[in-house]
Amino acid sequence: MVRAIDAPNDLGGIIEISWTLSIDDRPAFHGIGGATVLGAGGPITVYRGHGIDAYRIYRRLQREEDHLIAEVAAGKSHHLDTTVF
Q: How far apart are CA 30 and CA 52, in angstroms?
């Protein structure tokens, strides 16, 4: 779910954008395949995850192509768009 609302008391200059995090939004191990490493409690196996790196927010004006306006780190579900006109 994505929600975009006018921020209060800003004279129309900021849009608050929020969304539900993806089910793939979790830490990812960016190694190759699985690996066994020695941890403090003994050997543990680390697997490569399917996480995401970021959320990209685009704006489309009438009859124009999409324009990237922000890239938000994984784990975040909120952005204040201050580029509104």
A: 11
Contact 17, 29 (CB under 8 A): no
Please give the model's pTM, rounded to 2 decimal places.
0.66
Number of helices (H), then strands (E), belonging to the chain: the values are 0, 7
16-25, 28-37, 44-53, 64-73: lowest mean pLDDT where? 28-37
Q: Count of alpha carbons within 13 Å of 13, Cβ hemisphere only?
A: 4
Residue 15 has, within 13 A of its CA and on its CB side, a CA count of: 14
Rounded CA-CA distance 81/71 in Å is 11
Q: Are 44 and 51 in contact (CB under 8 A)?
A: no
End-to-end CA separation in angstroms for the chain: 24
| C-beta of residue 18 within 8 angstroms of C-beta of residue 1 | no
Higher pLDDT, 62 or 77: 77
